[in-house]
Amino acid sequence: MRSERWSAPTRELTLPERIAWVLGNEDGRPVSSLTEPAGLLVAAAIVELLLDASVLDAGSSYRYGPVEPTDPLLCWVADGLVRPGGRKSDLGHAVTGPRGAQMIRRTMDRLVERGLAHREPRRVFGYLAMPVFGSALRVHETGALHHDRSVVRQVLDGADPDEDTAMVTVLLHHGRRVRALHPLDLPAASERARAIASGRHVPPGIDQDIVRLVSPTVRTVLAALTATEVMSPGA
C-alpha cells in the first residue's frame, strides 16, 4: 500500500511496518513502544492481505486469495493464518505467546533491514553494556519518522486522508493509540479517528472497505487478543 505522502525511505513499508514505525519516538530514543502492540501488528497485516486479495474472508475462517503476497512479512502472516485452517476462533494463537512475539520481532527486523532503525546493546545504569539483555531498537531515520508522524497527525487534526493514511488511522483508533501521535486536540483527534473508522471523511470506495472489511477485521483480531488475555489467568 503505497502513498506519496510518506517520506522517501518509507513509501514501500507494509501496513504493519508503518504502524510500528509511526509509533516510534521522533527524538531517536529506544522505541520501547514498538515492543507492545503484537495484536495491532497482526491486524494490520491481515488488513493488507485482505485488501490485496491475498487472503479472503470466508466467514468463520480465512483462506488464500488469488493474489500471492510478495513481501516476506506478509507471506509469513498469511501462511501462519491460513495453513493451520484459518479459523477465526484460533486467532488468539496468532497474536499471543511465541507467535505474537515473532510478529513483533519480524516487524522490527524489517525496519532494521530497511535502514530505518538499528539495534544497540542494552545498558545497565547507563554505563555497562550487558549482551545477555539483548539489544534495544533505536530509530535511525529520525527525519523520516518526524515527517511520517506529521502526516498522520495532520489527518487526526483534520486533513483529508488518502487510502493509506485512512487505514493507519483506523488501526490507531481501534488499538487506542491516537494519543501516541500527540495531536493538537486529543479529544477532537480521537473523535475524528472514530469517524474515519466508521467510514467518514474518506474518499469514495475507501469508506466501503473500512466499514465492510477493515474495522471488522481489526476488531476481530483485537477481541481475540483480549479474550486470550482475560482467559489466561484462570487457565
From TrEMBL:
Coiled coil: none annotated. Keywords: Golgi apparatus, Lipid-binding, Membrane. InterPro entries: GPP34-like, GPP34-like_sf. It comes from the Bacteria. It is found in: Golgi apparatus membrane. It is a peripheral membrane protein. Pfam families: GPP34. This is GPP34 family phosphoprotein. It comes from Actinomycetospora aurantiaca. The lineage of its organism: Bacteria, Bacillati, Actinomycetota, Actinomycetes, Pseudonocardiales.
